[in-house]
């Protein structure tokens, strides 16, 4: 089959979605599936376009041996037409994405919460921006569980 395309989306694309993108990318690389998946992340808002992820997100990933060179971008109309899956972090992202997708002809993406894949049933991945290092670690662990389960389902 063709490549599977997946984008991870959060509000600003500097904390949660770059963590999820980096985690998923490492999983597919470890499983030798990187030729099968195109993974990206994006923001619902345009607040941080062009910015690197939050330094706490980067240091959290580094602690787990993961690097990322992602720069924040806003989701585009084309994303809805090309990606198979658009996975987001919370209800407000979900609402925004559903609203945006309704304005796109031939939206192909299946839009859902990344947390629907969590074996521990933590549906929402809370924004750690105003939190501590520990909150970033929680996001990492949630993303890891969800991305593993997602990959098992679609691999």
TrEMBL record:
GO molecular function list: acid phosphatase activity; non-membrane spanning protein tyrosine phosphatase activity
Catalytic residues in the record: 16, 127
One CC-aspect GO term: cytoplasm
Pfam family, one: LMWPc
Class of the enzyme per the UniProt entry, highest EC level: hydrolase
Domain named Phosphotyrosine protein phosphatase I: residues: 9-153
UniProt subcellular location: Cytoplasm
Keywords of the record: Cytoplasm, Hydrolase, Protein phosphatase
Catalytic reactions on record: a phosphate monoester + H2O = an alcohol + phosphate; O-phospho-L-tyrosyl-[protein] + H2O = L-tyrosyl-[protein] + phosphate
EC number, as in UniProt: 3.1.3.2, 3.1.3.48
Job of this protein: Acts on tyrosine phosphorylated proteins, low-MW aryl phosphates and natural and synthetic acyl phosphates.
Family to which this protein belongs: Belongs to the low molecular weight phosphotyrosine protein phosphatase family.
Protein's name in the database: Low molecular weight phosphotyrosine protein phosphatase
Organism expressing this protein natively: Regulus satrapa (Golden-crowned kinglet)
């Amino acid at each position: 089959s063709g490549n599977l395309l997946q984008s991870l989306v959060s509000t600003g694309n500097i904390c949660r979605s770059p963590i999820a993108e980096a985690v998923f990318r490492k999983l597919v690389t470890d499983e030798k599936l990187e030729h099968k998946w195109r993974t990206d992340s994006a923001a619902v808002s345009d607040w941080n376009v062009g910015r690197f992820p939050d330094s706490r997100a980067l240091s959290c990933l580094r602690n787990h041996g993961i690097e990322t060179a992602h720069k924040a971008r806003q989701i585009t109309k084309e994303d809805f037409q090309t990606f198979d899956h658009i996975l987001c972090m919370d209800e407000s992202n979900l609402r925004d994405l559903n609203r945006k997708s309704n304005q796109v002809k031939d939206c192909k993406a299946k839009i859902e919460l990344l947390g629907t894949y969590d074996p521990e049933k933590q549906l929402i991945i809370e924004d750690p921006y105003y939190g501590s290092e520990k909150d970033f670690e929680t996001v990492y662990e949630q993303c890891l569980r969800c991305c593993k389960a997602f990959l098992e389902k679609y691999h």
